[in-house]
Amino acid sequence: MSKLSKAKRDKRKKQQPKRAFARLSDQQQVQNHAVLTNEEGQVVAAIGLQGRQWLLSIGGQTMGNADDPMPMLAMLKHL
Predict the structure, then answer these.
(1) Residue 13 region, left (φ>0) first, then alpha (ψ -120 to 50), else beta?
(2) N or C: more exposed end of the chain, with fewer CB within 10 A?
(3) Contact 27, 55 (CB under 8 A)
(4) Could you list the mean pLDDT of each consecutive 10-residue stretch along the chain, which spans 79 residues?
């Protein structure tokens, strides 16, 4: 390997255009549609719309998604 290999490689890297980083904030925000709360007013579960997907969140974790909100409402009813 030549002594200049690293220098050539570094020069080539600097000349390449910068790659854009994927940002988490670029995702569509979730719009809440139904929220289940306990006696203290804390949110236990929620149903929201993100783009065209309906999401069911229980305890801060996404537990399911669907194209139609009816299965999510049925799951929320059984909690």
Answers:
(1) alpha
(2) N
(3) no
(4) 81 81 68 91 91 89 89 82
